[in-house]
Amino acid sequence: MAMLSGTDLVEVWAARRAGAPAAGADALLARLGDDVASMTPGGRDRALLDLHAAAFGPALDGVAACSGCGELLDVAVQIDELVGTMAPPGDRREVRLRDGGDVHVEFRLPAVGDLRHRPTDGAAVLDACVVRATVDGAEVAPSELPVAARLAVEAAMEEGDPFAEVTLALACPACGHEWAETLDPAPFVWAALGDAARRLVADVADLASAFGWSEHEVLAMSPGRRRLYLEVVRAS
Q1: Cα separation, 28 vs 109, whole angstroms
Q2: Is 224 exposed, middle or buried (0-12, 13-18, 19+ CB in 10 A)?
Q3: Measuring CA to CA, which residue among 226, 202, 186, 219 is closest to residue 8?
Q4: C-alpha–C-alpha distance, residues 57 and 55, integer Å
Q5: CB neighbours of 220 closer than 8 A, spacing ≥ 6?
């Protein structure tokens, strides 16, 4: 994965800090050259996990509220361990079954762009992703497929994009309640970006005040060299 520079972090944060975390996280991926709209939802989330591990650290640290008693739990997720537990993406892109006839469906996986255009209509997303559907050799519209075929396509899509919905099994130490929590990496990435950007802006302010350097000059330094100058400035 390409690395984000200090300039990338500050510019994305400055441009997106008033918006939603998901949009800001997508802007980071776009900064790295990813076409987010064409990625699958799971591919996007996997890319965000990889980005967090590379740029901000290997752990996601958060808080979850127990759905049984309301107790707040500290939750720490090691990204490499999480990735290791996930099933690999399936490669099926067609479904065949006999349900009121010989049904054959070719499909593609939903992309982020599909969900943006049809955010609450799962049936419309499925229809948009069916490339070709036939019953007894005759081509039919996706909406005309038997219910069993549509369910089989949905299941195959889930297998093909396992990171589209990652859930964590949690247990409350206070009341013993157990439940599953969906993990969305975007807020973690965005919070980490905000922390990093604010630190960088503080570094720029200190070094600009001490040496008269521009933001561009400070951010162009390697982190190690920047720290050396900051140690001198902040020790005085």
Answers
A1: 23
A2: exposed
A3: 219
A4: 6
A5: 7
Q: Could you tell me if 112 and 17 lie in one domain?
A: no
User: 44 and 105 in one domain?
Assistant: no
pLDDT tens, position by position, 155-172: 999 999 999 999 999 999
Question: Within this chain, do residues 72 and 107 fall inside the same structural domain, yes or no?
Answer: no
pTM of the model: 0.90
CA distance linking residue 53 with residue 47, whole number of Å: 10
Q: Give tens-digit pLDDT for 72-124.
A: 999 999 999 999 999 899 898 999 999 878 999 999 999 999 988 877 778 99
Count of structural domains within the chain: 2
